[in-house]
Amino acid sequence: MIGPGSHEELIARIRNRDVRAVARVISTLENNPRFAREFITKLSPFHQKKPRFGITGSPGVGKSTLVNHLVRQLREQEKRVGIVAVDPTSPFSGGAILGDRIRMLDVQNDPNVYIRSLGSRGSLGGLSAATANIVRVLEVFGVDFMLIETVGMGQTGFDIVDIADTVALVLSPESGDGVQTMKAGVMEVADIYAVNKADRPGADGLITEIISLLGMLDSPKEWKPPVLKMSALEGSGVSQLLDSFFEHQAFLAEHGLAATRRRHQIAREIRFIVESRVERLLTGETKHKATLDDLAEKVQRGELDTYSAAGVLIGMIINSLRDEEIHEET
Ligand SMILES: Nc1nc2c(ncn2[C@@H]2O[C@H](COP(=O)(O)OP(=O)(O)OP(=O)(O)O)[C@@H](O)[C@H]2O)c(=O)[nH]1
Ligand SMILES: [Mg+2]
Questions:
Q1: 47-255: what CATH class?
Q2: Share of the chain above pLDDT 90, in %
Q3: Ligand with an atom nearest the CA of residue 200
Q4: Could you tell me if the CB of 60 is within 6 A of ligand 1?
Q5: Model confidence over 262-287: pLDDT tens digits?
Q6: What is the mean pLDDT of residues 137-144?
Q7: In the prediction, which pLDDT does 67 show?
Q8: CB-side exposure of 111: number of CA atoms within 13 Å?
Q9: Parallel, antiparallel, or unpaired for β 192-195 and 113-119?
């Protein structure tokens, strides 16, 4: 348990690259929103964002195997790498990363590589509020580069596009999800398309399909997302992925888009925090939930209309949020 007053000490330890302090803080961030508020407030002055690369795609397309390659390439450049893998199948992690741990065995014992798996709290593709904070902690810890692996993108309140600078969508011919994924409107948000498992039949067909779908999008972007072909298993074509990432970083910088993009992300994060706090008040055995039920009954009996009921609840939520702020400050 992390006691009060120890935040500064923990931050000092993290800045000193103390792995145990990092692990402890990350676990607490994942499970304790109040700790997150206090800790991140104190951490922020020490934080500087690092390049962040998001790797997303359906289960089993080869994301972790590709991440492994990326880590190896970055290590060859003497970079320290942080990896966050968001696993939607586990509602909590506590560091029990299993699948990814096993697949990333060869980079696991490198002290310059920090791997952490997180639950996504049940929302497919969505990130928990803690994810952005955990990335910050690792950046203060001193990684030069963040890799973030998630399943799915662009469909939930807060996800990979809200954290990463550049997002690669990984597809594989055998997952057969190419067209469906794109039709779900996911297409626009990827900066790079990585067709993996090129050692399997169907990769060229998938590439043709992606290129033609990209051509149909009527959002004329200056950045033309590359469609890359690779086999993470054989290690062919994988270096292009990192090259494309750096090209995209340079593109964002040259066009002055990095800052704008980041500001939008931060706005989305703030909004997500606000929404989460309101939602927390209305979920579970809270007095707000009880009031909501009462109000519903009144509307049902014809004593009240829905808008007036909402007004009552909004007033109550405002008061509670204000109380929380005052409470936190003391
Ligand atoms: N044939 C072939 N198999 C691959 C390739 N890349 C990965 N695989 C295999 O595909 C399986 C899934 O790979 P992962 O890297 O774990 O895929 P993932 O996308 O991280 O999977 P989840 O994290 O479970 O969503 C493993 O058995 C890999 O060995 C490839 O290029 N070709
Ligand atoms: Mg994986």
A1: alpha beta
A2: 56
A3: 1
A4: yes
A5: 999 999 999 988 888 898 898 888 89
A6: 96
A7: 94
A8: 4
A9: unpaired
Tell me the range of 77-91, 116-130, 249-263, 278-292 where mean pLDDT is highest.
249-263
Query: Are the beta carbons of 230 and 198 closer than 8 angstroms?
Result: yes
172 Cβ below 6 A of ligand 1: no
Indicate whether residue 265 lines ligand 1 (CB < 6 A): no
| Nearest ligand 1 atom to alpha carbon 61 | 19
Residue 329: its pLDDT value, please? Answer: 47
Q: How many CB atoms lie within 10 A of CB 290?
A: 10
Q: Is the CB of 52 under 6 A from ligand 1?
A: no
pTM: 0.87
The preferred substitution site among 64, 90, 148, 231 for testing ligand 1, maximizing ligand atoms within 8 Å of CB, is 64
Ordered DSSP codes for 265-314: HHHHHHHHHHHHHHHHHHSSS-HHHHHHHHHHHHHHTTSS-HHHHHHHHH
Structure-token match 């962040």, residue found: 52
The rounded distance, in Å, linking the Cα atoms of 197 and 62 is: 8
Using CA atoms, how far apart are residues 211 and 22, in angstroms rounded to an integer? 42
d(CA 319, CA 330): 17
End-to-end alpha carbon distance in the chain: 21
